[in-house]
Design goal:
Bound molecules: nicotinamide-adenine-dinucleotide, magnesium ion
Shape: globular
Strand content: 5-15%
Number of strands: 9
Strand order of the largest sheet: 1-9-8-7-6-5-2-3-4
Length: 334
C-alpha cells in the first residue's frame, strides 16, 4: 500500500476477518456503532462490558452476545478497546492484558493510550487503530444507509505481518471503505485530534462564544440578544463552512458581514492567539497534557468536576435554556 493513498472497499480483503471473533470493549458512542456494523457485515462479534453496565440490556436486545470485559478480551482474536481514554490504562492492566495472547490484534479508536504509553502491549501482539471521523451515531446511521464515515487507520505494531490487512478489513466492516480510509500514525492521529478539540472545536469555540456573550452583556445589551448573536447563529455559519468551506460560507453571508469578517476576524484571533495555539500544541507533543489529564483522574477528577459545575452556573446556560424552550425544533433533553 503506497503512501497518501485513500483506501476503499475494493482495496480490502473482507475474508481476512471471516474466521475471527471480534471483541468490542465498551458500548458507548463508538462501541455500539462498531459492534452493530461489524455484526451486520457478517462478522462474529462479542461485546465486553462491566457486570452492572446499563448498556447490557441494550446490546443484548440488539442481538449481540455480551460478556464481562475479561472474558470478551480472551475470546476475541481482535480486541477493540472503545472505553473512555482516561480509563483504558487501568482496565487494560486489570481486565484486558491477560486475555490478549501473542498473535492477537489489539485495536483502538484513538491513539491516546498507546502514544502516551498508558498501555504497553507485549511485542508479539499486533496493534492497530481505526478512528472514524465522526460520532458513533453517525457511523451507525451512515452504515444503515449503505454509506459510511471516513476513517483514519494506523498500525503501531505488526508482529504477525497481517496487521494492516486486518485493520483495513475492520475499517471497511464498519463502513469506512464506502467513504474513504486514510492511513496515518498513532502519533499524528492523537496529536491532531487533541489539538483540534482543545484549540478550535471545543476549547476555542466555547471560549470565543462566552467572550463574545460577556462583551455584549457587560456593554449593557439584553443577554437574550447576546445569546442569539454569539451562540445560536454559530450553527448556521458552521453548517455552511461544513458544506462549502470558508469561502462558500462567505458567499452566503451579506457583504457587510464578509467585510467585517475579513477585517475584524484577524484582530480578534491575532498573533497572541496563534502563539497560544503553538504552546497548546507543544504541551500535547511533549506529553505534558496527557500527564496532567491522567494525574487529574488518578486524583479523583476533583478539578475537572469543579470546573464543570462552575461552567454550568454561567449566565449563558440559563439564558440559553429559556430561549431554547422557544424553539420547538430543538431536542429539549438538556
Ligand atoms: P463513551 O464514553 O461513549 O463509551 C465508553 C463505554 O465504555 C461505555 O459503554 C461505558 O459504559 C464503558 N466503560 C466505561 N468505563 C468502563 C470500565 N471501567 N469497564 C468497562 N466498560 C467501561 O466513549 P466513546 O466516545 O465511544 O469513546 C471510545 C473511544 O473512541 C475513545 O478512545 C475515543 O477517543 C474514541 N473516539 C470517539 C469518538 C466520538 O465521537 N465519541 C470518535 C472517534 C474516536
Ligand atoms: Mg478526541
Ligand atoms: Mg446576526
Amino acid at each position: 500500500m503506497p503512501d497518501k493513498k485513500t483506501y476503499y472497499d475494493a482495496d480490502a480483503n473482507p475474508d481476512a476477518l471471516a474466521d475471527k471473533t471480534i471483541a468490542i470493549l465498551g458500548y458507548g458512542s463508538q462501541g455500539h456503532a462498531h459492534a452493530l456494523n461489524l455484526s451486520d457485515s457478517g462478522y462474529d462479534v462479542v461485546v465486553g462490558l462491566r457486570p452492572d453496565s446499563a448498556s447490557r440490556p441494550t446490546a443484548e436486545a440488539a442481538g449481540l452476545e455480551v460478556l464481562d470485559v475479561t472474558d470478551a478480551a480472551s475470546r476475541g482474536d481482535i480486541v477493540m478497546v472503545l472505553l473512555p481514554d482516561e480509563r483504558q490504562g487501568e482496565v487494560w492492566a486489570a481486565e484486558i492484558r491477560d486475555g490478549v495472547a501473542q498473535g492477537k490484534l489489539l485495536m483502538f479508536g484513538h491513539g491516546f493510550s498507546i502514544h502516551f504509553g498508558e498501555i504497553e502491549p507485549p511485542a508479539g501482539v499486533d496493534v492497530g487503530m481505526v478512528a472514524p471521523k465522526g460520532p458513533g451515531h453517525l457511523v451507525r446511521r451512515q452504515f444503515e444507509e449503505r454509506k459510511g464515515v471516513p476513517c483514519l487507520m494506523a498500525v503501531h505494531q505488526d508482529a504477525t505481518g497481517n496487521a494492516r490487512e486486518l485493520v483495513l478489513a475492520y475499517a471497511c466492516g464498519i463502513g469506512g471503505g464506502r467513504a474513504g480510509i486514510i492511513e496515518t500514525t498513532f502519533k499524528d492521529e492523537c496529536e491532531t485530534d487533541l489539538f483540534g478539540e482543545q484549540s478550535v472545536l471545543c476549547g476555542g469555540a466555547t471560549e470565543l462564544v462566552r467572550a463574545g456573550f460577556e462583551t455584549l452583556v457587560e456593554a449593557g445589551y439584553d443577554p437574550r440578544l447576546a445569546y442569539f448573536e454569539t451562540l445560536h447563529e454559530l450553527k448556521l455559519i458552521v453548517d455552511l463552512m461544513y458544506e462549502k468551506g470558508v469561502q462558500g460560507m462567505r458567499y452566503s453571508i451579506s457583504n457587510t458581514a464578509e467585510y467585517g469578517d475579513m477585517t475584524r476576524g484577524p484582530r480578534v484571533i491575532g498573533p497572541e492567539v496563534r502563539e497560544a495555539m503553538k504552546r497548546v500544541l507543544a504541551d500535547i507533543q511533549s506529553g505534558e497534557f496527557a500527564k496532567e489529564w491522567i494525574a487529574e483522574n488518578r486524583a479523583g477528577a476533583e478539578n475537572f468536576n469543579r470546573m464543570r459545575d462552575e461552567a454550568s452556573g454561567h449566565q449563558i446556560e440559563s439564558v440559553g435554556r429559556d430561549l431554547r424552550s422557544m424553539m420547538p425544533w430543538i431536542d429539549q433533553e438538556f
